[in-house]
Amino acid sequence: MPHEVIEDFKRDIHWPTVLYYIHLHALGLYGLILLFTEAKWITVLFTMFIIFYAGLGITVGAHRLWAHQAFEATGIVRGILMIGHTLAGVGDIYDWVVAHRTHHQYYGTERDPYNHKKGFWFSHVVSNIYSPHPQKERLDKDIDMCDVDYDGYVWIQRWFYWPMFIVIGLLLPINAPAEYWGESIKNTVFILGFFRLAVTTNLSWLVNSAMLIWGLKPGDKFPSDDNTIFIINKSYWLNYHYLLPWDYKCDEFGTYDRGCGTFFIKTCENLGLVSYLKTASSESDS
């Protein structure tokens, strides 16, 4: 394999994005305080449900279904996951998939937008506040998006993202507690608005930075270039995932064949809502 030439370039910090994330997290922290000190118990449960649902939209939807085509889903499931992803407030599915496929294709290089070799802080935070790679448009054209190009749910969300996000991601979840069980407007805005979006934003970031938490570290027993161990023992999720990204059992946060996302997929399979689940067998390696 030829030695890769690393381009020398400068990516500038996008300061409006920095200010947005600073305010989001600061106000979200206040929302967390209100969640434990003032909010009604039903608001706490509702917040947990909304975050869980949005998390499925990111992990099962954008990541496993659309980015890696780990299974096929009916229109009902696609619609549910598309709404969940919109609720997360992390941009449209198409852009998320392009960025994640770029991350896999150029993993660990300067072209990788979340390059883990620069450390967790860069991979998790800084990469999301920098300007794009100067060759981003050309790099995007190198990413095969044919499958997503013909997905109607992805394009409906892409065309109408902002109206959908304002209604689904802001107005409905913020209004519901005040409308149906008398929660204060202050609590709903800071908890269901800022706190919830801060959590879902970090869930989305963590999909691309999790290698630095749950992956193998330098000096661990099994080096990252020893591929056999990841096929035999799938407990090393992150390294295994970068070898076989289409395995639907790969949980985003350090487990294999466990977790809410995998349970959701298996439940949908039992209901006949998803099919052609892709996985690798340790016995057959297929």
From TrEMBL:
One of its GO terms (cellular component) is endoplasmic reticulum membrane. It is a multi-pass membrane protein. Keywords: Fatty acid biosynthesis, Fatty acid metabolism, Lipid biosynthesis, Lipid metabolism, Membrane, Oxidoreductase, Transmembrane, Transmembrane helix. The keyword Lipid biosynthesis applies. The keyword Ion transport does not apply. One of its GO terms (molecular function) is stearoyl-CoA 9-desaturase activity. This is Fatty acid desaturase domain-containing protein. Belongs to the fatty acid desaturase type 1 family. Its cofactor is Fe(2+). CDD domains: Delta9-FADS-like (cd03505). The histidine box domains are involved in binding the catalytic metal ions. The chain crosses the membrane at residues 18-36, 42-62, 159-178, 190-214. GO terms for biological process: unsaturated fatty acid biosynthetic process. It is found in: Membrane.
